[in-house]
Amino acid sequence: MKSPGLCLALLATTLTLAAQAATPELKLWYEKPALSWEKEALPIGNGRLGGMIFGGLRREQIQFNESSLWIGDETDTGAYQPFGDLFIQLEDDELGKLKPDSTTGYRRELDLSRAVHSVSYTRNGVKFQREYFASHPANVMVFRLTADRPGTYSGSVRLTDMHQGRITADGNLLTVTGSLAGYKYEAKSTNYAFALGYEGQVLVLHQGGSLKAAEGRIDFTKVDGLTILVCAGTDYVADRTRGWRGEAPHARIVAQLRAAARTPYPALLAAHVADYQRLFNRVSLTLGPGPDAAALALPTDQRLLQYATNRQDLALEALVFQYGRYLLISSSRGAVPANLQGLWNNSLRPPWRSDYHTDVNVQMNYWMADPANLSECFLPLATWLNSIRQVRQAATRAAFHTRGWTMRAENGLFGGSTWQWVESGSAWCMQNVWDHYAFTGDRAYLRTLAYPMMKEVCEFWLDRLKPLPDGTLVAPNGYSPEHGPREDGVSHDQQLVWDLFNNTVAAADALGVDREFRALLATQRDRLLAPKIGKWGQLQEWMVDRDDPKDTHRHLSHLVALHPGRQITPLTTPALAEAARVSLNARGDVSTGWSTAWKINLWARLLDGDRAYKLIGNLLRLVGDTRMNYSAGGGLYANLFDTHPPFQIDGNFGYTAGVCEMLVQSHAGEIHLLPALPRAWSSGRVQGLRARGGFELDLEWQDGKVTRYHLTSPKPQAVKIRVNGEVKTIKSTRTR
Ligand code: FUC
Predict the structure, then answer these.
(1) Tell me: the pLDDT tens digits for 602-650?
(2) Fewest 10 Å CB contacts: which of 26, 46, 198, 682?
(3) How many whole angstroms from 463 Cα to the centroid of ligand 1?
(4) Could you give the CA distance from residue 607 to residue 592 in angstroms, rounded to a whole number?
């Protein structure tokens, strides 16, 4: 009789092969190892632990991260830190020495359908195979090297640490322990008030051959295969009352590595794939007739180059959409939200501290979480915001003498905040916080987490707004990120305060609480200085009509009311929407990564699919493609990371959000199907997008017209839906 382990192994292999065969359109692949971390290495992550994999032949490098490894404190943003690198040095075999170029068929790929990275090649008739994944259920990263001839691998596994921790090798275990004490983002900063402790462990399991610990490394000789398990952590806890420091990670790491080591590899892989697919498989997207075999046969970087010439590879547009979902699942499933680089950072002084920028960037990271059906990946943002409330309250009281709280533009894990005050930053975060409820209808979340925060941020604005002589309320001394003077009534502030008050009124109604407070908010909302149309027909960025039609600044701060807000829509406020169109036109189509992504969303809200599609062409552009003569930045690297430059993940997430906005909108009291469908996407199919009100949607279209749709919700309910230009009320069916 076959053992259960073997059955499981066979099952896993069969499933794996089936998945591999079924989803070539969900793969990024390359014919060469990566040289550049930023542009070529490929990311894996379990929402907390992440790796960037190079796929080197003789030396594999996996640069790795843990999401809570932060320096900083309650006054200074600090910076997100890299953890270290794992190196697997492979010795040449006899034949390889004689014929150094004897490697053929090298392929490195990232399979988004399973969240598995792999490397394969043939050398001297031997087939080598490596697999890498970051398991959320097991909380470890797993790297496996196999070959179809026994005893082929000899070499060593080595660990490096970015903060001079102590590295030891004992038996088959490498350990690093250390502290972040003394590390600063800027040499001029004073030492931070406290420092996290950290630990990482690497367990090397071998099949055949032998293993031996040496000085700071583990040597292996003539092994058939290796399974390497990596776990890392800090003593961070999202709890200010405990000084942000909880248990040392040691016991947890030991237990998790032990449990993973006891689990056969196929079972570890199967559990990882099942867990990942539970989230990833909720949404599928086919644009046009589906993947074209010739495009799939090209390595991803070449495919991107070819896309620029004729833009016929719609499957690439769908792939980059799904990549955004992959990246969010991989970087946002712990207590810590996705930062400016998601989870991946190899620098002690990363650009902009790899922080939480609250004047667009962190908000953009999460626009797609709910529409793209990854609601649970949103929660780390709410958890983090909740954890820093008291820190922000104290800082806000000191600076503004108000209740409530807000932030400066750069924010760290412990609530420290630097650079300019962006007074409406917290209101903007509250929009994400509200939207999560709007999409999910999760009342417990609204009552315990969202509403208390929204209320506090409202209190900040109730105390801070000031009346003009005619009683109109303005936000004083505001800033339109990131240019222009500081002055009263900046449109960005006005629109975000409107949005905050409006959403908080809805939240109080949903919960049936705070009637007086709700009434006050509604009154003050209606007294706010409203969006204004200026002398060249533009939506004014400032209260004073001074917008420059030649201003092509990357920020689109005065358009937040159009997207992601809902104060301006073509259906409810057509004149203001037209003014927003004039402003957006003036800003132009050439910009940095995240700005291009935002423009896709904005054009989608203006119901202009072809213009949004033009911006998609600007975003899906291989950086360095000299044919494009494009100097403003933006674009994708070979690994499909979006760049500002440098790499910033907001552009990836913002693109995915933009595709959602082009296919379904639900912010204006109705669900609008295909609101901004470009001509290029005349036919297609999407399953599993979400709409506000707790709905989930399947949708098919032909010749630009919806041919079939299906709307489900946890409880069947009536909803207004706009389909092919017609508005009707239908009843959803119960979610299966
Ligand atoms: C904002 C932007 C910059 C950059 C930074 C991280 O300050 O204006 O362009 O994206 O965030």
Answers:
(1) 999 999 999 999 999 999 999 987 776 666 778 999 999 999 999 999 9
(2) 682
(3) 29
(4) 23
Whole-angstrom distance, CA of residue 299 vs CA of residue 277: 25
E-strand stretches of 332-382: 356-357
- What's the CA gap between 228 and 261, in Å, rounded? 9
SS3 at position 700: strand
In the block, tokens 């908080």 appear at 504
Lookup: tokens for 553:
């600044």
Dist. CA 278 → ligand 1 center (Å):
34
408 lines ligand 1 (CB under 6 A): no
CB neighbour burial string for 285-314, b if at least 16 within 10 angstroms, e if fewer: bbbbeebbeebbebbbbebbbbbbeebebb
* Residue of 407, 644, 647 with the most ligand 1 atoms within 8 Å of its CB, for mutation: 644
Fold of 4-282: Beta-galactosidase; Chain A, domain 5 (2.70.98)
Q: Kindly state the tokens that stand for 162.
A: 């970015």
482 Cβ below 6 A of ligand 1 = yes
Under 8 Å between Cβ of 408 and 479:
no
How far does Cα 323 stand from its chain's mean position? 10
End-to-end CA distance of the chain: 38
321 in contact with ligand 1, CB cutoff 6 A: no
Q: How far apart are CA 336 and CA 81, in angstroms?
A: 13
Bridge partners of 530, per DSSP, are none
Q: Which of 352, 552, 642 to mutate to test ligand 1, by most ligand atoms within 8 A of the CB atom?
A: 352
Q: Which two tokens stand for residue 308?
A: 């620029």
What is the residue whose two structure tokens read 């979902």? 325
What percent of the chain is modeled with pLDDT above 90? 90
Q: Is the pTM here over 0.85, yes or no? A: yes
Q: How many CA atoms lie within 13 A of 487 on its CB side?
A: 12
pLDDT tens for 182-213 read 999 988 888 999 999 999 999 999 999 999 99
From 80, 353, 359, mutation site for ligand 1 pocket: most ligand atoms within 8 A of C-beta = 359
Strands 671-673 and 718-723: parallel
Cβ of 352 below 6 Å from ligand 1? yes
CA 266 to chain centre: 28
CB 46 within 8 A of CB 212: no
Q: Would you put residue 164 in left (φ > 0), alpha (ψ -120 to 50) or beta?
A: left
Going by the DSSP 8-state scheme, the letter that residue 91 receives in this structure is P
* DSSP tag of 627: G
d(CA 191, CA 193): 6
Q: Which of 638, 652, 586 is nearest to 368 (CA)?
A: 652
Q: DSSP 3-state assignment of 371?
A: coil
Radius of gyration of the chain (CA): 26
Work out which ligand 1 atom sits closest to the CA atom of 361.
11
Q: Return the half-sphere exposure (C-beta side, CA atoms, 13 A cut-off) of residue 166.
A: 4
357 lines ligand 1 (CB under 6 A): yes
Q: Cα separation of 305 and 299, whole Å? A: 10
Q: Residue 197 — φ and ψ, nearest 5°? A: -100, 155
Residues 411 and 417 sit within 8 Å (Cβ to Cβ): yes
644 lines ligand 1 (CB under 6 A): yes
Among 419, 356, 354, 418, smallest CA distance to 383 is for 356
428: closest CA among 379, 376, 492, 477?
A: 492
pLDDT single digits (tens) 448-475: 999 999 999 999 999 999 999 999 999 9
Ligand 1 centroid–CA 493 distance in Å is: 18
Phi-psi region for residue 512, left (φ > 0), alpha (ψ -120 to 50) or beta?
Answer: left
**384-403: b or e for each residue (b if 16 or more CB lie within 10 Å)?**
bbbbbbebbbebbeeebebb
